[in-house]
Automatic annotation (TrEMBL):
Name of the protein: Carbamoyl-phosphate synthase large subunit
EC number of the protein: 6.3.5.5
GO BP annotations listed: glutamine metabolic process; L-arginine biosynthetic process; pyrimidine nucleotide biosynthetic process
GO molecular function: ATP binding; carbamoyl-phosphate synthase (ammonia) activity; carbamoyl-phosphate synthase (glutamine-hydrolyzing) activity; metal ion binding
Family as reported in the entry's similarity comment: Belongs to the CarB family.
Organism whose genome encodes this protein: Acidiluteibacter ferrifornacis
Quaternary structure annotation from Swiss-Prot or TrEMBL: Composed of two chains; the small (or glutamine) chain promotes the hydrolysis of glutamine to ammonia, which is used by the large (or ammonia) chain to synthesize carbamoyl phosphate. Tetramer of heterodimers (alpha,beta)4.
Keyword Manganese: yes
Pathway assigned in UniProt: Pyrimidine metabolism; UMP biosynthesis via de novo pathway; (S)-dihydroorotate from bicarbonate: step 1/3; Amino-acid biosynthesis; L-arginine biosynthesis; carbamoyl phosphate from bicarbonate: step 1/1
Keywords assigned by UniProt, alphabetized: Amino-acid biosynthesis, Arginine biosynthesis, ATP-binding, Ligase, Magnesium, Manganese, Metal-binding, Nucleotide-binding, Pyrimidine biosynthesis, Repeat
Catalytic activity: hydrogencarbonate + L-glutamine + 2 ATP + H2O = carbamoyl phosphate + L-glutamate + 2 ADP + phosphate + 2 H(+); hydrogencarbonate + NH4(+) + 2 ATP = carbamoyl phosphate + 2 ADP + phosphate + 2 H(+)
Organism phylogeny: Bacteria, Pseudomonadati, Bacteroidota, Flavobacteriia, Flavobacteriales
Underlying gene: carB
Chain's role: Large subunit of the glutamine-dependent carbamoyl phosphate synthetase (CPSase). CPSase catalyzes the formation of carbamoyl phosphate from the ammonia moiety of glutamine, carbonate, and phosphate donated by ATP, constituting the first step of 2 biosynthetic pathways, one leading to arginine and/or urea and the other to pyrimidine nucleotides.
Cofactor requirements of the protein: Mn(2+)
Length: 938
């Protein structure tokens, strides 16, 4: 066995807060790597500043340090743990690699005799330094675009004149395409070159000839010390070159590549990986292929680390790349490791897919009042979804159903755009909705050739969408009673939801459901097995389809379903995945078989061995209901998956499916702003004057009674969506009309806004009678900034005993009045020593992981057991915290350079970090406290 026995203790570097371009895929890879090393008896120490992750949990690593990702923090750890002998920096994205380089440059690794494993500095440098990369590719005979490095404005200008436009400017050592741009004209070149030079930490850019419109592909590779290489997955970008791969719709396996070109690409990728350095681990290689019969290939870049794409490839194939990469880093050869899914074949066996996966990014342009809503080289998506199907069409529809953008899938929901001019503008200037507008264009009868010339998306993909529209037209000729079975089956096999078919037939979703069940058209579940069923898989990881036998065997154990939180977006991030994973672990400990339903490929919850059974399916009513009918669980946990899961509570309740923990009635009462305020009134709990309205006229009348300023907020929304402070009648009318345009029929609450108030929030666990308050936090910013965008200090730092007593009393009263079973989060505004209630959420909140990390207590585990019937009094709470913990909001405004950076009631932060301070004299606290009013907007 070649395992390096000298490695006894490994330091893993995490990726820090979630930002656009670096999301929770590194929580997944870091967690998996840590578990993989500990299986080998190796001690693991982990550094990361993100409290919302599973990787920073005791269940994952031996020693966890929630510290800023700086060389000083690394040195502190190495002093505390002198037995650390290796560092693995490839599991924490660009942040970890950059930190590893910094530590190398200042001689830290050498000083403490630390070996770098999984990659070497030479490989990082050659792949990050655009010029070195280009020269190496030329040397080994791999074609690249004509390019030149520029370290100054003048150098860049000269080269641009030499090779002409269009050009690409790519800064060195940046993440998610930061600072990268296309330049079409000399006029825009100066500004974009300056931006690129500033974005690079070493003020260096690569300027290369743009291969706009070429097709883009990625290969995921693993290599061992013996120089064995496996290609885990080929991924084709549906969007051509010109859009960052993180913002592209991607498909695996590659669909439109000839076998000859694929073999050439494989050989190039292996040659590239072998040439960049002598290391064992994972690699992601990107290529552009000309969109003509010549299929010329050029190399775009190579990343010697796990990436967002490798998380996707892991979920797409069932092959746990990070887990195997960690084993290779400590010396194992691929042929000595077993395939984790089959347990019988070797890890040197390349995965084969007998299904198709489609990844669609999830954007949040609605949060950024920016004109820059088009997609390009700089990544702007905040999350992604993945659909698995037997065909591209089925996977595409399932991915669209997973997005949570108020669509029922791709088309067939009456929401299409019919303005030809607007459609063509969207096709030429890609944004988040271009896929839907391609559908609209074909439906409107715009010729495929015109759609192709506007998008340069391969005609194979366009014709697949054209086929779907032809099927819809055929279905539309029938009524439900007359619809032939083969047509209904075809629609289901192409991924159409019952409610899309109902739209085409002008009937109810429930009628389509009954009809297909009467006809025997029922979902079956197939296993993700890495080997196209050639060998038996041992891992219960499933997707649904409508053909063949059902491979998901139902056990006779008592079961609990946990609904996941779907794609990351602003207002609902990794913290809910953290809660879902802990919910699954707690339910397992309580003797239940656990079933996870989620569609986010970046997460730990969708790892093949987190729950007893994983259904990689949209968190969408029809899919969930069919799984519940198949598995017949004791109940469903909805309060851990954020608003995504919570929104399904009403239907579960209506269909008589047990909601584990707090009832739907209580969840609904807390969301209905009017009824909730009545509950406060009945319990003598102060709240701002309020009223609910459903038209702009009613709003104006009510404002006369309540008085300005007013906080206007819709019901059942996430991350403060649509919330705004208005100060006069004109603003009020305008905003109410705006909300009703986006959320027709929504009940809108108007609160008198308590300007100048202090904001605080509490999280608690309640069993219906007993309440334990896990933490009370005070916000540094005044009321008016969304709690997710505020610095929060735990425990509170300047609230009086009188105020704290009121917070305690109100929290206990509200938790019991709502008959809470599990977690509850309550937000307060404090003015003139009176504590007013802003809102209560009887579910897991963003702050629960933060409090759990700050106090070193497994609160989600306890809360889940309470949902399952335990009493709060069964647990021995022993919180530990010296000094204070601060939750730091992190923003991604740099991706939207011209956006207004003011903060208000609608959340804009993409992630968070935690900072521990010994006392309030701490420099960090004094700095942020002095700036508390800086960004407040109305």
């Amino acid at each position: 066995m070649p395992k390096d026995k000298s490695i006894k203790h490994v330091l893993i570097i995490g990726s820090g807060p979630i930002v656009i371009g670096q999301a929770c895929e590194f929580d997944y890879s870091g967690s998996q790597a840590s578990r993989s090393l500990r299986e080998e008896g190796i001690e693991v120490t982990l550094i990361n500043s993100n409290p919302a992750t599973i990787m920073t949990d005791k269940v994952v690593a031996d020693n966890v340090f929630l510290l800023p990702l700086e060389p000083e923090s690394i040195e502190d750890i190495l002093v505390k743990h002198p037995d650390i002998d290796a560092v693995l920096p490839t599991m924490g994205g660009q942040t970890a690699l950059n930190l590893a380089i910094k530590c190398d440059e200042i001689g830290l690794w050498e000083k403490y005799n630390i070996r770098m494993i999984g990659v070497d500095i030479a490989a990082i440098n050659v792949t990050e330094d655009r010029d070195e990369f280009k020269n190496l590719m030329i040397e080994i005979g791999v074609p690249v675009a004509p390019s030149k490095i520029a370290n100054s404005f003048l150098e860049g200008k000269n080269f641009a004149q030499e090779i002409g436009f269009p050009l690409v400017i790519r800064p060195s050592y940046t993440l998610g395409g930061t600072g990268a741009s296309f330049v079409h004209t000399a006029e825009e070149f100066d500004k974009l070159l300056t931006r690129g030079l500033h974005a690079s930490p070493i003020h260096e850019v690569l300027i290369d000839k743009a291969v706009l419109g070429w097709k883009e592909y990625e290969l995921e590779l693993l290599r061992d010390k013996n120089d064995n290489v496996v290609i885990i997955c080929s991924v084709e970008n549906m969007d051509p070159m010109g859009i960052h791969t993180g913002d592209s719709i991607t498909v695996a396996p590659a669909m439109t590549l000839s076998d000859t070109t694929f073999q050439k690409m494989r050989n190039m990728a292996i040659h590239m990986m072998r040439s960049i350095g002598d290391f064992a681990g994972g690699c992601n290689v990107q290529f552009a292929v000309s969109n003509d019969e010549k299929e010329d290939i050029i190399a775009i870049e190579i990343n010697p680390r796990v990436s967002r794409s490798s998380a996707l490839a892991s979920k797409a194939t069932g092959y746990p790349i990070a887990k195997i990469a960690a084993k290779l880093a400590i010396g194992y050869h691929l042929d000595e490791l077993s395939n984790q899914i089959t347990k019988t074949t070797s890890a040197l066996f390349e995965p084969t897919l007998d299904y198709v996966i489609v990844k669609i990014p999830r954007w949040n342009f609605d949060k950024f009042d920016s004109p820059e809503k088009t997609l390009g080289l700089q990544m702007k998506s905040v999350g992604e979804v993945m659909g698995i199907g037997r065909s591209f069409q089925e996977a595409l529809q399932k991915a669209c159903q997973s997005l949570e953008i108020k669509r029922n899938g791709l088309g067939a929901d009456g929401k299409e755009l019919r303005d030809q001019e607007k459609i063509m503008h969207s096709l030429k200037n890609p944004s988040w909705n271009r896929l839907f507008h391609i559908y609209d264009a074909i439906k409107l009868g715009i010729p495929l050739s015109r759609v192709y010339s506007a998008t340069l998306i391969d005609k194979w993909f366009l014709s697949q969408i054209e086929e779907m529209i032809a099927l819809e037209n055929k279905i539309g000729e029938y009524t439900l009673a007359e619809l032939p079975k083969d047509l209904l089956l075809e629609a289901k096999q192409k991924g159409y939801a019952d409610r899309q078919i109902a739209h085409l037939l002008k009937c109810l979703e429930s009628e389509v459901f009954s009809k297909r069940h009467d006809m025997g058209i029922k979902r079956v579940y197939k296993m993700v097995d890495t080997c196209a069923a050639e060998f038996e898989a041992k891992t219960p990881y499933y997707y649904s389809t409508f053909e063949g036998e059902n491979e998901s065997k139902v056990s006779d154990r008592k079961k609990i379903v946990v609904l996941g939180s779907g794609p990351n977006r602003i207002g609902q991030g990794i913290e809910f995945d953290y809660c879902c994973v802990h919910g699954v672990l707690a339910a397992k400990e309580s003797g239940y078989e656990t079933i996870m339903i989620n569609c986010n490929p970046e997460t730990v919850s969708t790892d093949f061995d987190t729950a007893d059974k994983l259904y990689f399916e949209p968190v969408f009513w029809e899919h969930i209901y069919d799984i519940i009918l198949h598995e017949n669980p004791e109940g469903v946990i909805v309060q851990l998956g954020g608003q995504t899961a919570l929104k399904l509570a009403e239907k579960l309740d209506r269909y008589g499916i047990k909601i584990v923990g707090t009832s739907y009635e209580a969840l609904d009462l807390a969301e209905d702003r009017g009824r909730f305020s009545d509950l406060l009134k009945d319990n003598d709990i102060p709240y701002p004057k309020y009223g609910s309205i459903s038209t702009a006229d009613e709003a104006v009348e009510l404002s006369k009674e309540i008085g300005f300023p007013l906080l206007v907020r819709p019901s059942y929304v996430l991350g403060g969506q649509g919330m705004k402070i208005v100060i006069n009648q004109e603003e009020l009318e305008q905003h109410v009309v705006e909300i009703l345009k986006d959320l027709p029929g929504n009940k809108i609450l108007l609160d008198h806004f308590l300007s100048g108030a202090i904001e605080a929030e509490a999280d608690a666990i309640c069993d219906g009678e007993n309440v334990y308050i896990i933490g009370v936090m005070e916000h540094i910013e005044p009321a008016g900034i969304h709690s997710g965008d505020s610095y929060a200090v735990l425990p509170t730092f300047d609230l009086s005993e009188n105020v704290l007593k009121q917070i305690d009393d109100h929290t206990r009263k509200i938790a019991v009045a709502l008959k809470t079973k599990g977690l509850i989060n309550i937000q307060f505004a404090i003015k003139d020593e009176v504590v007013y209630i802003i809102e209560a959420n009887p579910r897991a909140s963003r702050t629960v992981p933060f409090i759990s990390k700050a106090y070193d207590e497994p609160y989600v585990n306890y809360a889940t057991k309470v949902m399952l019937g335990a009493k709060v009094t069964d647990f021995n709470f022993t919180p530990k915290l010296d000094g204070y913990a601060i939750k730091i909001p992190v923003f991604s405004f740099d991706k939207f350079p011209n956006v207004n950076k003011e903060l208000g009631p609608e959340m804009k932060s993409t992630g968070e970090a935690i900072r521990f301070i010994p006392n309030l004299k701490d420099k960090f606290f004094r700095e942020i406290y002095s700036e508390r009013n800086l960004y407040l907007s109305k």
